[in-house]
């Protein structure tokens, strides 16, 4: 059947498309007001550009094809963040802080879940050139402001720090293969499997890696972590960073999860995930990914977050769509044409009937223009 779309791909019909566009405008306007400049990278790039360095995790998610002009392998972007890093490092070449934002479709070879689209509409903001915790703080506050702007309340924002795991694994002298196994066990919170593997590692690092699985909850988790984890400089610094963020952003429902290594191969510092009522997956993901631009010529500090507008459009409160005004065919009536133009300038949707057309099925018209004497007036349409 030619009209069927591939699995986990769907059209956005008028009402959904309108909600998505409203969200896009609201969030991008917020980003612009905070100094984040919009960039629009191409959908298609050479594969090595999309997967270089921090983008390696995206390999299995990326559609690949051969460029008929060059013979090289191209990739359809699965994430716009590496593209933003390339633009900052190679094209803009600013010496100070750069704030960029973006919005566009990305394509995934497989859906993130059974109900997820393989074409998320990704919107995000990235801050380059500042290594201090103040940059992470700005991004977290921007996330909170974005959710507030679209009237979506987060009930939990989990904070983690991949530097803890990396410091402990390095101190324990684990091989890359063992480190990968530890990472998967922690992500799955497989405590029995983790206990078995950690028992083969030297103390105090093996027990500390096992402790990470139970270190989640409120701000008190940080104090527990200070007593349970060895006082390596990297561990102390990571915990200090998390404590600072918890204290500095009281307006967000921040919690701690030290075993959440989401994006472990991509991020190298603070990571966070925002959750909303009635939806099992994170609605926003972000964190620090210093050095992503190294392969493009400059290893810059970087932090940011992104969201999927398609998913957000299903979660935000859905207001009743504003009705349109039905107008008769203008023909040569200059006064009617001027009146319709004035209504449209005021933000009204006015549908002009074509000759012979008597009604408009979509958009929903709840009012109509009628001529009363020498004046055009608006009347409600009686749906009975």
How many strands, which pairing sense, and closed or not: the largest β-sheet?
A: 9 strands, mixed
Mean pLDDT reading: 91
Classify the oligomer: single chain
Note the total helix count.
12
- Global shape: elongated
CATH architecture of the largest domain: 2-Layer Sandwich
Q: Would you give an account of this structure?
A:
- Helices cover 36% and strands 21% of the residues.
- By secondary structure, the chain is of the alpha+beta class.
- The protein has 3 domains: 11-149 and 291-309, BirA Bifunctional Protein, domain 2, CATH 3.30.930.10; 156-275, 2-Layer Sandwich (BirA Bifunctional Protein, domain 2), CATH 3.30.930.10; 324-380, no CATH class.
- The radius of gyration is 26 Å and the shape is elongated.
Q: What key phrases describe this protein's structure?
A:
384 residues, alpha+beta, BirA Bifunctional Protein, domain 2, 3 domains, nine-stranded mixed beta sheet, four-stranded mixed beta sheet, 12 helices, 16 strands, 36% helix, 21% strand
What's a quick, concise take on this entry?
With 384 residues, the chain is an alpha+beta fold.
What's the topology here?
Blueprint: H1 14-33, E1 37-38, E2 44-46, H2 47-51, E3 63-66, E4 73-76, H3 81-92, E5 98-105, E6 121-128, H4 133-149, E7 156-161, H5 162-172, H6 176-187, H7 191-198, H8 205-212, E8 216-217, H9 220-228, H10 233-248, E9 254-257, E10 270-275, E11 284-288, E12 302-308, H11 309-315, E13 324-327, H12 334-345, E14 350-352, E15 365-372, E16 375-380
Parallel strand pairs: 1-5, 7-9, 13-14, 13-15
Antiparallel strand pairs: 2-4, 3-4, 5-6, 6-12, 7-10, 8-9, 10-11, 11-12, 15-16
Helix pairs in contact: 1-4, 1-11, 5-8, 5-10, 7-8
């Amino acid at each position: 059947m030619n009209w069927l779309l591939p699995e986990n791909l769907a059209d956005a019909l008028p009402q959904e498309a309108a909600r998505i566009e409203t969200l896009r405008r609201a969030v991008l306007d917020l980003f612009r007001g905070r100094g984040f400049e919009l960039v629009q990278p191409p959908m298609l790039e050479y594969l090595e550009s999309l997967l270089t360095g921090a983008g390696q995790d995206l390999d299995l998610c990326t559609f690949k094809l051969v460029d008929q002009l060059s013979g090289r392998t191209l990739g359809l972007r699965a994430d716009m963040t590496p593209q933003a890093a390339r633009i900052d490092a190679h094209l803009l070449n600013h010496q100070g802080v750069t704030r960029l934002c973006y919005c566009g479709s990305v394509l995934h070879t497989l859906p993130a879940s059974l109900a997820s689209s393989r074409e998320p509409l990704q919107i995000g903001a990235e801050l380059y050139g500042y290594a201090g915790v103040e940059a992470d703080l700005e991004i977290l506050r921007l996330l909170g402001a974005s959710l507030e702007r679209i009237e979506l309340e987060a009930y939990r924002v989990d904070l983690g720090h991949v530097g803890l795991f990396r410091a402990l694994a390095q101190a324990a002298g684990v091989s890359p293969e063992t480190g990968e196994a530890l990472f998967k066990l922690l992500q799955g919170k497989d405590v029995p499997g983790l206990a078995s593997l950690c028992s083969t590692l030297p103390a105090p690092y093996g027990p500390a890696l096992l402790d990470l699985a139970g270190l989640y909850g409120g701000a008190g988790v940080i104090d527990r972590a200070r007593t349970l984890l060895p006082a390596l400089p990297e561990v102390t610094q990571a915990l200090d960073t998390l404590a600072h963020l918890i204290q500095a952003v009281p307006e967000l429902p921040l919690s701690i999860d030290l075993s959440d290594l989401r994006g472990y191969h991509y991020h190298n510092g603070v990571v966070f995930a925002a959750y909303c009522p009635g939806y099992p997956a994170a609605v926003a993901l972000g964190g620090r990914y210093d050095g992503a631009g190294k392969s493009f010529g400059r290893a810059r500090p970087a932090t940011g977050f992104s969201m999927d507008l398609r998913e957000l459009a299903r979660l935000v409160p859905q207001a009743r769509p504003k009705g349109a005004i039905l107008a008769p065919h203008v023909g040569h009536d200059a006064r009617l044409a001027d009146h319709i133009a004035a209504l449209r300038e005021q933000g009204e949707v006015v549908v002009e009937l074509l000759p012979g057309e008597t009604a408009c099925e979509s958009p929903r018209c709840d009012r109509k223009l009628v001529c009363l004497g020498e004046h055009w007036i608006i009347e409600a349409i009686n749906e009975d």
